Each structure stands twice: as C-alpha cells, then as structure tokens.
Amino acid sequence: MGSIVFGPKVLPDNLTEIAGYKGGLAMSIEEICDHLAGTSFPDVVRDGETSGVRLRSEEYEDLYYNLLHRIGYTRELYLGPSFEQARLFHRFEANAAELDFFMQVSTTMNHFMRIGTPSGESKTTDPSAILAEVNRVFGVAGVKIAIEMYEIINRGIRMNPHCGIGNEWINPLKLKGLFKGTDQQPEKGRFIDQRYIDYLSNNHDRIGEMHWRQFEKLTAEFYERDGYKVDLGPGSNDDGVDARVWKQDANPEDSPLCIVQCKRQKNKIEKVVVKGLHADVQFERAEYGVIVTTSELSPGAKTTISARGYDILTVERDGIKGWLTKLRTPGTGIVR
Are residues 198 and 232 in the same domain? Predict the structure, then answer.
C-alpha cells in the first residue's frame, strides 16, 4: 500500500476532528497522545505539530482504529474488514461441509452484488433483494451467513479512515467535563451523555477519576434505563440522598422503592455511611437502600449490615463495570 504525507499540524488536527466528529469527544492533542500510550503514535503525533509526517496507509489505519477504540467508539479494537472476513472464514474451515456451504453462499452473494438478482433487481445498495435470493437458494442458514457478511461490509464502510470522517456528532463534548464537571446537557441520555458511558466502558481504570456529580448521573442513568423512575438529587444539600428510585407504575405519592447513596472515593466505605443510609431508608419508608461506590465496604460496614439486618445493597467497582457494559452503545462491538 502507499503512503500518506501530512503537512505540519495536519495529522494532529485530523485526529482531533476524528475524536470530535466521529467519537463525539473534544480532546486536546495531549489528551489524544495520552490515549495512544503504549503505541509508537504519541511521538508521531507530537512531531506532526511542527513538521510533516509520512505514514504508510496501514499505519494510519492502525492509528485511526486505536484512537477510536481507546475513546470508546468501538468496544473492541477494530482490525479492518480483511481481518473480519478472514475470521469468518476460519470459523467454518474446520468442517469441510460447513466450509463448502459457506463458500457457496459467499460466491453467490458476491455474484448477486455484482450483476443483480435473477428476479430482475439490478445492483443496489439495498441488501433485501439479495438476502431474499440467498434465502430462496440456501435457506435460513445461508441468510445468517449473508447478514454477517453485510455487517462486515457496513462496518468496513463506517470505519474506513480514507473516505472522510463521516460526522456522527454535531457538538463534540469536552472529555475533561467527565472528570472536571460540566453543565452541558446530554445529547443522548437523560442524565449523562452516552459518549461518556462509551468512553468509560473502554476505560474502567478512570471510573474513580470521574467528577462526583457525573458519578451520580451515571447511577441515575442506569436505573432510568433499567426501567425505573428516578429522581436525581440536587447534588448538594440533599441530606445524603443522591437519588430516589420508584417502580415504573408507582404513584407520585408512593414512597421510593429504594434510596441511593453514591460514593466516588478511594477509601473504603465505613459503617457510619451504612448507618446514615439505613436511617434515610426508614425516614423515607423505602424498601431498601443502595450504596454505589468506586471503592468497597470496610469489614466493619459489612458486619453492620449483616448483624443488624439492614436492607442495604452495594454496587462496587465490578458492578459499575457491568453497568457500563449494559449501557454502552449497541452494535459497536465485533459480531462473532
């Protein structure tokens, strides 16, 4: 493959545009370099600020795929359509009959894509006519393979770094707002923007760095999407109640299902927090309380809950990771 020559500042500017209009995050050059740590690219990007940079096409693709993965745009590192096609092939090669069936479907599908279908449909970007023909010839099993092939094609188009950026966000969101706080309202999501969720789902090590208010919003977002009604507290002067949660069919005058206390901290949660939450649960006549924390409960706090029979649940770091997996944008992983 050939090479791409970037003039001074062109490559760094290109990467900030990719992060902004593709991934939806406004990032500085240094933030981009930080997210490319462990590769050879940070030095390349910094050099590109003052001098021209020459990259082979495959090097630029690697840079592009790594950046989008590390800011949460793809759940797994994308390696290009050729790799995905090869992986699909290898899934069938161990069984001669299955491999033959796969090759027949693949050959027939490619034929229809080049010249159209026997029913008279000309070449089209709409796959429905081709899938119908594949179904007629090969049945449901053939359609499943054809759909996977189309997904690989579509993902390759969407992830192609050589065909323009393909703007997906109009207003990039400052990444530092996740850690410093921001008043910018979410474009997608009620409490916290989806872009922050996708970012954190690929950067679990930064959960503890979140701004405390963003951590509360993430908690509220999870319960909201899990089918509950949520009232997120003001963030200060809330008497220790960060969120109240009701069942979807609850009446306005009903007591909350649960009271949520969010603790984004490094130190273990002590029993004084447990006792305070239990008091809030009783006062609000809720069924139970929940402590959501980036840390964990101290032995004393755990003993207090069990010994006194408090109706208190905990969601610790691993639980939050599970939330992020559940909340991240669907369809951004690799189909296997």
Answer: yes
